Amino acid sequence: MAQAHGYGGLNLRTLADLVGIKAASLYHHFPSKADLATAVARRYWEDAAAGLDAIAAKVADPAERLRKFPGTFRLALENDNRMCMCSYMTAESDDLPGIVKVEIERFNEVNIAWLAKTLVETGVPTRDARKRAHAIFAAVAGAQLMARGRGDVKVYDTLIRAYQASGLIPS
Amino acid sequence: MAQAHGYGGLNLRTLADLVGIKAASLYHHFPSKADLATAVARRYWEDAAAGLDAIAAKVADPAERLRKFPGTFRLALENDNRMCMCSYMTAESDDLPGIVKVEIERFNEVNIAWLAKTLVETGVPTRDARKRAHAIFAAVAGAQLMARGRGDVKVYDTLIRAYQASGLIPS
DNA sequence: ACCTGAACACCGTTCAAGT
DNA sequence: ACCTGAACACCGTTCAAGT
């Protein structure tokens, strides 16, 4: 729900229905919608971190690992044209409770740190790696947003290939 | 309001207050919230198109025009850390009325077409220009989103410079 | 032609009351 | 410990009634 409708569109009554209880009962498990969203967002970046670690463990070549990164953002689009929950909630910044925002920023940090570390392994100077990682991350998020708007994963693939052709993402 | 809170966060009662009438009275000017948002979105891309045309009229060098493009997306951030209304509403895709979506896509088209045309003038082959334009647009939108999340325009400037350093945007 | 109050079905949230 | 119905102030929207 958060990946398709954001924080604002996350409906407690619908959510309670899916779980088989009443909306009021949710408050026995989470003190508020903000706390529920915080738990969701925390699990979200934890899962992302685990996914990136799995790539790092399986793929020896750092350049090949970088090439695999856009695949992690592709999954959401494959799944009913959804998008990164954190990109969505970043748009919602002004209306997002502070405790949720903290977890969102953690997701960004996890991704950027992983990219920077991997870039260094491919020979990018340490002092350039972080900026470059940030740029790759922002561009990938933008590509995902565009593809969602058009409702077409192929748009995403084309954009990623254009990033590679321009030299932003090593290919 | 749309640039800060999106379509879902666009509140008719607050909006009516700002104009000095009651929410019910809005329905005398627009049949529904969807129609109001459509009018807003249309004006939004019309203004964007005019702004890009103004750059084209004033700046002779196409490479210099391309360098000026990120400035158009910087304005929203300068204005109370707001973002592109169309990026926000693209995230809201699943809950966005079709008539609004049409205007959003028009905004993307206006920007991409302008970029493609300008790229061709700098010597980029016509058949590559559109993909490249799309990539620049997506990356700039992503950078704006990141900067909004951090609430810091300097993040945007750093990202744009990273795009230029990588060769995505001509510098 | 334009505005309004009152009502509708929806939200998140609270709380007293149940098991 | 966990769940519930009923209520609260809020949404978009409708409509009969006003000028």
From TrEMBL, chains A, B:
Pfam families: TetR_C_13_2 (PF21993), TetR_N (PF00440). Residues 11-30 bind DNA. Signal peptide: none annotated. Keywords: DNA-binding. Residues 1-48 form the HTH tetR-type domain. InterPro entries: Homeodomain-like_sf (IPR009057), HTH-type_TetR-like_transc_reg (IPR050109), HTH_TetR (IPR001647), Tet_transcr_reg_TetR-rel_C_sf (IPR036271), YxaF_TetR_C (IPR054156). GO terms for molecular function: DNA-binding transcription factor activity; transcription cis-regulatory region binding. PANTHER family: HTH-TYPE TRANSCRIPTIONAL REGULATOR RUTR, TRANSCRIPTIONAL REGULATORY PROTEIN. This is Transcriptional regulator. It comes from Luteibacter yeojuensis.
